[in-house]
Fold:
Amino acid sequence: MNVKARDSSALGRFWAEALGWGVFSEGPAVTGVGPVGSVWPDCLAVCVVAVPDPETVRYRVHLDLATASAAHQAELVARLKELGATPADVGQGEVPWTVMADPEGNVFCVLEPREVYRDTGPIAAVVVACADPRAMARFWAEAVDWTLHEITDDYARLRSAEGVGPYLEFVRTTPGATPVWTRVHLDVLPRPGDDQAAEAARLRALGATPADVGQGEVSWIVLADPEGNEFCVLAPA
Structure:
């Protein structure tokens, strides 16, 4: 997952502390955060990338964090506030989860205990707001070769075929909902030894389209999913 920041090092350290993960790479423009000891392809990494100014693009992706009990939820919220997170109001009303923003304003949720997320690790799910969860789930299930666990007109849930790590969820956008501006998108990392251009071609055949976000000459390929959400196909590790 790719998160934009004015200060990639500081925000990377926030997410490492928040998730109890380690910083596996740190440079002048990119800080990588991931589970300590995890091996591709069974982990989700957070890459925090420096940008000079807030973007004006509306990304519709956020993280949900898992908790094991009501006490754990309260403790996690308090610890996140100490790290620099703040309460956020996105029009959620009275809900059992807590909506927060990281130090650069990216919204995320600290969920109440839910049995389905008991073994996901600190991130319960990467959540994508969309118009058609069924179509998005079909595309992304093929794109990342994950297993579809649940699908309705309003909601869909995928998870790694290995049955580990967070879920990828698609939630139908409520008409008239207050827009939430964040700087988060998904990245796709081909398996070691795979061809990046061939992977991008496969994704285009599934319904992705080329996208220009002013990236210029870069080592990754920028595409958009069927609802126009940009994502990057990275060079294989």
Observations:
- The chain has a mean pLDDT of 88.
- Helices lie at 8-19, 70-83, 133-144, 196-206.
